[in-house]
Amino acid sequence: MTARKGPLAGIRVVEFVGLGPGPFCGMLLADLGAEVLRIDRAADARKGYTKPPRNPMNRGKHSIAVDLKHPDGVALALRLVEGADALIEPFRPGVMERLGLGPDVCAERNPRLVYGRLTGWGQTGPLASAAGHDIDYIALAGMLEPIGRAGQPPSIPLNLVGDFGGGGLLLAFGLVAALLEAARSGRGQVVDAAMIDGAAALGATWFTMGAAGMLGPRGTNMLDGGAPFYDVYETSDARYVAVGAIEPRFWAELIHRLGLTEDPVFADLAKQHDPAHWPAMKARLGEVFAGRTRDAWCELLEGTETCFAPVLSPAEAPTHPHHVARGTFLHADGLPEPAPAPRFSRTPAAVPDRPVHPGPAEQGGDTDTALTAWGVPEAEITRLRDAGAVV
């Protein structure tokens, strides 16, 4: 197996397969150099289940397919834990304990292990064992209600706030912090990453503003589409542009470049932050932006001191000149995917034309090579396969 590059090079992680936020956490660690071994379900491998070949969350990882209901499969997982620095498990509370792979058992095998647990509701509390998804977690965390337009139901922010921001990213941060501490103390610990906790943390400012009486109803505030200087506007070709001219000098520059300096609606720029004037300002800006195409507005405003950007689709974004210049996206097998982030000056992740290891399309596609690299003898691999513990 090829040696990894990046600030986490030398760190070994065992990832038990799950849905989006768990693999996303593993991707973040793998992108920065960690050696991530994904344990897939043997049942899926036996069915011939194939993962999308270019799923970015598979990249940089190796896959083995293990039957965790087989005693030899559990024994193999514990053997891998002995050589790991960290573990990612995305199941409901109690599942790993019932498999014989709970944190206490793993700590006996490897006292330095950082044991990462990723759930929606957390390991404790009355809802800990309840079913749920991103939308439920951010709803309970108080982060769904404020998002959306005035007079309309809350808008669903994809699954970015709970699953990925409040879940996978939070766990990656927690694992790295615990690994730093383990390097000093020689002792691992359990990291309980709950999406409700992460979503609440992302909304720290909003909780404070709400408690201080500084928030109006949904869609009437400065950052939720209520303000004319922080909103999206439709263009003549049914596309959109985004304006974020919060500061007075950026607002003045926008009004100037739009040719509205003499317009009575904008006669007094000091009224920018007076909500009483927002409806008229929004209506006038809507009329103006509807008069040209999105590309025409880009020619006039992009790169200026107006805090302007075109609203691009996921299909359009990778080809924008700024992304091309920075290498924000990789293009592997003709398909775009975000490049590793953040960037490091001294220990950068390896980012060639395609990821170092794109990740197996098949469940268990690296069983032999990965187990060998983790110290399992060939004869033992053969025995495990014959016993049905691995596929």
Report what the structure shows:
The chain has 391 residues and is α/β, with parallel strands linked by helices. The chain folds into two domains: 12-202 and 329-387, Crotonobetainyl-coa:carnitine coa-transferase, domain 1 (Rossmann fold, 3-Layer(aba) Sandwich); 230-234 and 240-310, formyl-coa transferase, domain 3 (2-Layer Sandwich), CATH 3.30.1540.10. It contains 15 helices and eleven strands. The chain has helices spanning 21-31, 42-46, 71-82, 95-99, 103-109, 134-140, 160-185, 195-202, 204-211, 248-257, 278-289, 294-301, 321-326, 367-373, 378-387; strands at 12-16, 35-41, 61-66, 86-89, 114-119, 190-194, 230-234, 240-244, 308-310, 329-332, 335-338. The strands form three sheets. A six-stranded parallel β-sheet has the order 3-2-1-4-5-6, sandwiched between helices. It has a three-stranded antiparallel β-sheet with strand order 7-8-9, covered by helices on one side. Strands 10-11 form a two-stranded antiparallel ribbon. Strand 7 and strand 8 form a beta hairpin. Helix 1 (21-31) packs across helix 7 and helix 7 (160-185) packs across helix 8 (195-202). The two termini are 20 Å apart.
What are its keywords?
2 domains; formyl-coa transferase, domain 3; 11 strands; Rossmann fold; alpha/beta; 391 residues; 6-stranded parallel sheet; elongated; 36% helix
